[in-house]
Amino acid sequence: MTIQFPPGKRPVFVGAGWTMIRRYMPRTKASNAKEAATMAIADAGLQVEDIDGIFIWANPNWGNVQGPTVWLDVSQMMSVMPWKNIKFWLQPEAVAAGSCSGIHCAALALGAGAVNYALVIRTGHHPAGVRYRQISSNRAPGNSAFTTSYGHGVGGSGQSVTYQRYLAKYNAKREEMAGYVITAHKNGQDTPQSVWRGRLITEEDYLNARLIGYPMNIFDNDMPCDGVLAVVMTTEDRAKNTPHPGGYVSGMAAIPWHHRGTGAAEPLENLEEMNSWHARNLYDSAGQKPSDINVKHVYDGFSPMVWMWIEAFGFAPQGEAHAWAQPATIGRGGTDPLNMSGGNLGSGRVHGFGHVMETAMQMMGTAGVRQVPNAQVALCETGPFGSASSFIATKE
After folding, report:
1. How far is CA 178 from CA 84, 217, 325, 326, 354, in A?
2. Domain that includes residue 38, residue range
3. What predicted TM-score, i.e. pTM, was given to this entire model?
């Protein structure tokens, strides 16, 4: 069943803003948030007092760091800008990297009339001296025996196991992953805020990089960074008075976690089934199909999931993404450009909100040299398999 909004109330993107994405940035999270929010509001042709809804996805924390010290939450955001009247706010607490969940919440609030202008924002912060998800336990019971041996406890550690299964099952080679990673880094060179801008890696760099959890090397894992990204959304009727509206949300979905199997070392086949449910639900909600999508953004916090999301959303047949996701196809001049901002791997880890913001900019027509010609229907997915979320947006 497709999502239906009242006449004139389709949620649409009208602005985008950002800070630089850097390692250990010598600025407060509040300063970064104010800069990104101010830029997004100005880009939308609005004033701060116009914003009456704030939506933040604030998880997760790193390692032993407790409390809101690595991200900026709604209560902090309330204090960094001279808001006039925030009517409604929401802070989803889903685990891992569900950046699209903020878009879901804003879209539903706008469509229901709870707010008129929504700011959706995401903070990235990695404290100095904190090692990302380092294992502190001296035990590895059950499935963790397959993942904690690499010394870190999230993301790549579990996916390295699934990745090995994918390579064996589909006769793929880890060297083929260079096709995506190098393309992502090239795209990041034209993204103003990218942490990698000016530091383009080569195929040789990738193939000879230090292994983290075989067969994944350091470039297969995203870099935890500091930075804030934001978008502004409103309704179709109000968007007519803004400079460049674009990207009407037409469908939304979240991973059907009840299909999950054994946890940390998830069997490949379990993930493929769960991802396919997610994709079907998204397409059904939007009344779209894979061939309709010409702006493609899938989460790449860890490179192996890119191949699996490509297959789940029907961009390539199952087991063939390793050959499909090569520069001639996914590069800027390719038939199916992918992750035009560089994604997490080519731009820096802000938990997939770079995918969200780039989707908005592509549909608003403000992506500059990254702009996909004739962008009409966009798919954006963020988050790893256990907490993925997605939306589809149309130009008109």
Report:
1. 49, 11, 10, 8, 21
2. 11-130+223-394
3. 0.95
